[in-house]
Amino acid sequence: MRVPVSGGAGYIGSHTPKVLVHSGFEPIVLDNLSTGHRWAVKWGPLIERDLGDSTLIRKVIKTHKVQAVVHFAGFAYVGESMQRLRQYFLPILRVEVGIPQGAGDIPLAAYRTLTL
Questions:
Q1: In a designed cystine with 95, which of 51, 61, 63, 89 is the match (CB 3.0 to 4.6 A)?
Q2: DSSP assignments along 19-80, one per residue
Q3: Which of the four pLDDT bands, split at 50, 70 and 90, describes residue 57?
Q4: pLDDT over threshold 90, residue 21
Q5: CATH, residue 108
Q6: How many domains does the chain have?
Q7: Quick check: pTM over 0.90?
Q8: What's the whole-number average pLDDT of the chain?
């Protein structure tokens, strides 16, 4: 089963593709690299795009016959997030809405999200 991992180039998200591979899954890393790192993507291909784009999400789900999504995408700095709440909250909300919208009528076996 192919499993997109949004935010898969970040500190936490980059560990998930390794676990997925060792569990028999095929991870696809989705990240815009705003706080993630290309060098952290070692377990599956990287699609470098804006994750609020529901058209992109739909294309990835259909093209790769995705049945589950793991979502870690978001800005990474906790201290700054307390000072710039709007800058942090709105992009996370766009992705939280964009992934299910992108899936549309395509059934997903699982959609898991972790927002820190």
A1: 51
A2: HHHHTT-EEEEEE--SSS-GGG--SS-EEES-TT-HHHHHHHHHHTT--EEEE--S---HHH
A3: confident
A4: yes
A5: 3.40.50.720
A6: 1
A7: no
A8: 76
